[in-house]
From TrEMBL:
Family: Belongs to the cytochrome P450 family.
Single GO MF descriptor: monooxygenase activity
Protein name from the UniProt record: Phenylacetate 2-hydroxylase
The organism's place on the tree of life at top rank: Eukaryota
CC cofactor: heme
Binding site residues for heme: 362
Family annotation (SUPFAM superfamilies): Cytochrome P450 (SSF48264)
Length: 439
């Protein structure tokens, strides 16, 4: 049995998550995830209760993906977005083949975050491991769900549960690839053939701020956190763009690209700079409209919290339920809500809680925004996105598009879209040039 507080309004989240940051700084421990899945590699940062070690891991990892650190990963965004667009172009045969973008997006996100953590120099090792990591991490994310592991709340079920065996099975498979990756990086460092990356920086730090278990936890956070959540977000965004209203949005996005980069420089420029307010607004609207982690990650209070006339005791679990009602016309998909029309259509940040809030808010948000900016800008410059013949309107709604409501990250329905090149010659030119530079 567990006491849980669910905050349902924007204001209550502000009061509990932001005004009471210190009190809500911890994460709960659950039997299946913490005592069965995680006993060997330790916890990710996002599943660690608050203590001195969590504080240090969080500090090091957050510094490695902040706005300025991202500059050292731009070559990775360049390479991975080139690869996914090349593959979509090849497989869609000028739009004749409808494509389910899921596997392309998962490979893109996983390879990007593994390269950021272990270095793009480890690319061939990473490519070999991607299918296994993808499968194991999707299964493990099921064990993190708050509502799908009854044995977390009813201890007697632990004696009988098949979940223990399954969790142990995936833990063993995870241990194997985590070791291969770290050993690969250590050997590259010894040979002097490693590149800039998060784990390498920690290993080479002369005044090692993290011990080897803490390093494992940072690596695990980089493997587990973005691999599922970015593809789920982008996939739902592509689904919306393929709809009839999405056609108008694509055209506006394309116009803004052409206004800013009339001579086709967008392909290179969108790696170096983030200067397209309409695309930035589109990404925020996708995040708001399709929140991929609708109950965020659970928190646990470390002190009593007074809320109105109630005292919520220390050790309570808190869930953040996203509140759409605070937006004007909340069910309308409209990137313009983030654009100030006067004087120069600038981007205006309107807070949403898709990245959480307060002391344990997602610190990968700059990285995620930048990765999605590059990807959407290149995809919209390269293709017109049309719906599949059997278009399913359920993909236009965040709730009906999600096939697994008990998982911590939404699992979008399978659907297909058509990627039709806007200008085949220009696209082939971009791909040829990138292919040569990135060899
Ligand atoms: C669309 C992209 C993403 C979304 C929507 C997202 C969402 C979230 C949410 C809701 C939380 C819980 C925040 C809270 O408790 O207040 C979180 C935590 C976290 N995210 Fe993300 N995330 C995304 C991408 C990333 C990326 C790219 C990274 C890679 C660095 C990342 C790393 C983390 C970590 C390490 C935590 C745990 C922070 C802590 O517990 O202190 N996330 N994320």
């Amino acid at each position: 049995m567990k006491r849980v507080v669910v905050a349902n309004s924007y204001e209550s989240v502000k009061e509990l998550w932001i005004d009471n940051q210190r009190g809500l700084i911890s994460r709960p421990k659950n039997y299946t995830f913490h005592k069965v899945v995680s006993i060997s590699q330790g916890f990710t940062i996002g599943t660690s209760p608050w203590d001195e070690s969590c504080k240090n891991r969080r500090k090091v990892a957050a510094a490695a993906v902040n706005r300025s650190a991202i500059q050292s990963y731009l070559h990775i965004f360049d390479f991975e977005s080139y690869e996914i667009i090349r593959n979509l172009f090849r497989d869609s045969c000028n739009g004749r083949n409808e494509i389910n973008p899921r596997s392309y997006l998962y490979a893109y996100a996983l390879r990007s975050s593994l390269s950021i953590n272990y270095g793009i120099e480890m690319r061939s090792l990473i490519n070999d491991l991607v299918p296994e990591i993808f499968q194991v991490e999707s299964e493990i994310s099921g064990f993190r769900g708050i509502t799908n592991n009854w044995q977390d709340y009813i201890p007697i079920l632990r004696l009988l549960s098949r979940k223990n065996t399954l969790a142990a099975h995936y833990r063993a498979r995870r241990d194997k690839y985590m070791k291969i990756l770290l050993d690969g990086l250590k050997s590259a460092i010894e040979k002097g053939i490693d590149g800039p990356c998060i784990a390498g920086n920690i290993l080479k730090d002369p005044i090692a701020k993290l011990n080897s278990d803490e390093l494992k936890s940072v690596c695990l956070s980089m493997v587990a956190a973005p691999g599922e959540i970015i593809p789920a977000t982008v996939m739902q965004g592509l689904g919306y763009l393929s709809s009839s209203h999405g056609q108008e949005i694509q055209e506006r996005a394309y116009q803004s690209i052409m206004e800013n980069y009339p001579n086709g420089q967008v392909w290179e420029k969108c790696i170096q700079e983030e200067k397209l307010p309409y695309i930035a607004a589109l990404i925020q609207e996708i995040l708001r409209y399709y929140p991929v982690s609708p109950l965020s990650l659970p928190r646990e209070s470390i002190s009593d919290i007074v809320y109105n006339d109630a005292v919520i005791p220390s050790g309570t679990m808190f869930l953040l339920n996203l509140d759409l009602e605070r937006y004007q016309d909340p069910e309308r998909f409209d990137p313009c809500r983030y654009l100030d029309e006067k004087p120069k259509k600038g981007f205006v940040a309107i807070p949403h809680y898709t990245y959480g809030a307060g002391s344990r808010m997602c610190f990968g948000n700059h990285l995620a925004n930048r990765q999605m900016f590059t990807l959407f800008t290149r995809i919209i410059s390269a293709f017109k996105i049309f719906p599949e013949k059997n278009f399913d309107p359920e993909i236009l709604n965040a709730v009906s598009c999600n096939t697994n409501h008990s998982s911590i990250v939404a699992k979008p329905k399978d659907f297909k879209v058509q990627f039709v090149p806007r200008d085949q010659e220009a696209l082939e030119g971009w791909l040829r040039k990138s292919g040569e530079c990135l060899k």
